[in-house]
Amino acid sequence: MDEQPRLMHSHGVGMAGHPGLAQHMQDGTAGTDGEGRKQDIGDILQQIMTITDQSLDEAQARKHALNCHRMKPALFNVLCEIKEKTVLSIRGAQEEEPPDPQLMRLDNMLLAEGVAGPEKGGGSAAAAAAAAATGGIGADNSAEHSDYRAKLSQIRQIYHTELEKYEQLDIVPTGGGYGQRQNLKKNACNEFTTHVMNLLREQSRTRPISPKEIERMVSIIHRKFSSIQMQLKQSTCEAVMILRSRFLDARRKRRNFNKQATEILNEYFYSHLSNPYPSEEAKEELAKKCSITVSQVSNWFGNKRIRYKKNIGKFQEEANMYAARTAVSATSVSAHGSQANSPSTPNSAGSAGSFNMSNSGDLFMSVQSLNGDSYQGGQVGANIQSQVDTLRHVISQTGGYSDSLAASQMYSPQGINTNGGWQDAPTPSSVTSPTEGPGSVHSDTSN
DNA sequence: ATCGATGATTAAGG
DNA sequence: CCTTAATCATCGAT
């Protein structure tokens, strides 16, 4: 495009298209004195100003005369050749790049995410509706999943409509570049390409534009559109990734466990406070009871342990409560019941099912805390109170702690000593806690 | 809007 | 794999 003035110049000179103008230009280039040049420019400007005065017919006739000039084809070819050598050789270098690995990666990913592939199912809206309609307990999960799918299909739709615009199909400049195009789908790329092609063909009547050059231009356009496509794919990938992280990252859709599950977990925790490492079976059982996964149980215990250890005081009340509960269920049958043989939690929330006192150490601890503060004793009843009394007695004998501060301090010897935690407990996951040797805990306590 | 509680993830160590 | 410790991101109450 930028060569236009020069080419026009060439035409003017070579073909005498505009006698007056050519004359002056020749004069201008030949003359060396500034005086004459200035005058030439003035003349040229004058002519340019008056060029619109010429009738259209006259211009057309002149153009026609140009086109039909006998020297035109030869000159045209020569000029094309020269242009080929000078201008086009510069950018002939980067042709036919190999398939971009990044593009392939993007394609693969889009395919894997179901964005690029064929539409599946009868429209995801229906699927989403169906999933949402199932309702019930699992509704939360499936609803979010369907929401995810709906969003994904939205992305997918945008992607496809956009992609179609930029897709390039069969623009075949057959033979000499004046060939016919076939199967032209109407989209931005093809429209633009044909437009440019037509424009260049039109101009090739007045400018030296070889068919080869048109072809090259087409390929340049295609490259540009390819890069647009690439960008589209890239941003689609990004969108999918964001969507994924938004919906599939469990952290982001965290739901608190329901109260019952928390109760069960807490009961297990506080009744095994000396060694709160449930075995694999225990975890499975807890998971089943709480309707959560085993790894969620593991997470819960991991979090609980660390948070309990970090701030025991904060958990006192909770500890009291669960310990008291355990104690109640244990004492209410007024028997030192041995464990149920399964690694089950002491008692399932609220029900008077399995009364078991996991170990006396824990009870001891719980009562210590009762001794300390804030326990109102409402539902517990007299037998607990008596135990409190007894233990208070014991405590006062052994340690001499008598105020609420003592309670929190008394927790630590349980197993968490100042040096760091339950670490001297038996190998965590290999111990099925309910079948523990009672003595060990006591010895722990006495430390 | 803010803030503590909480489930999940990550890094480091075994 | 397991753990701990730190951290993230959300929930839920205020």
TrEMBL record:
GO terms for biological process: cell differentiation. Residues 36-249 form the PBC domain. One of its GO terms (cellular component) is nucleus. Its main location: nucleus. InterPro entries: HD, Homeobox_CS, Homeodomain-like_sf, KN_HD, PBX_PBC_dom, TALE_homeobox. Residues 248-311 form the Homeobox domain. Belongs to the TALE/PBX homeobox family. Pfam families: Homeobox_KN, PBC. Residues 250-312 bind DNA. Keywords: Activator, Developmental protein, Differentiation, DNA-binding, Homeobox, Nucleus, Transcription, Transcription regulation. SMART domains: HOX. PANTHER family: HOMEOBOX PROTEIN TRANSCRIPTION FACTORS (PTHR11850). GO terms for molecular function: DNA-binding transcription factor activity, RNA polymerase II-specific; sequence-specific DNA binding. It is found in: Nucleus. Residues 1-38, 334-354, 411-447 are annotated as: Disordered. This is Pre-B-cell leukemia transcription factor 1.
